Amino acid sequence: MGIGNIFRAFQPKDKVFFVLFNKVADNLVEMSKEFHDGMMEFDLNDDSLLKRMSDYEHKLDDLTHEIFVQLGENFITPFDREDINMLTSGLDDIADYIYASAKYIYLYKSPQTAAYSEFSLLIYKACLEVQKAVVNLDGFKNPGVVKEACIKINSIENIADDVLSQAIVKLFETNDPINIIKVKSVLDYLEIVTDKAEDVANTIDNILIKYA
């Protein structure tokens, strides 16, 4: 390996990682927006929403794989490798559970409930804050903006917990065991999405504490 190649191998690759993180965050916003729109105009006989969620999930899997490839190829990273691993996995989990939520709505032929659209709006808002946090994490130039976004994500997760509790109370009042099983399963997946967003916020918070 020539001197030039050795020098380049040890140059910081911040741009590579943050470009990929931003792409992931952008796709999560698009995915969650389409999911919310789909819940607002839900048609159980039209599975095009499920196909779009699957496409997004595959696209985000590819981006996740690319980040891990870069992690293996680059000696110098913008922050700790373990934190990059956790952030990457956390972002991917958000996409996985959005897709899982959509999948089980269609597999169970679950009737639409008001809670589905409430959750989908919270998920979209959480993804917008994730995007804001990721964009402003680059270079640690705007730690206050990142911190504020993380706080909002935590608040959204708390609201989601309340939505879940209220939805389950109403669900049990239906006295329909089969429907209760189906809908509760979907509600659990939807609530997990907000949990995963909170995990991402906590990871970003820890990165800020170490480096900002």
UniProtKB/TrEMBL annotation:
Pfam families: PhoU_div (PF01865). InterPro entries: PhoU-like_sf, Put_Phosphate_transp_reg, UPF0111_domain. It comes from Halpernia frigidisoli. Belongs to the UPF0111 family. PANTHER family: UPF0111 PROTEIN YKAA. This is Phosphate transport regulator.
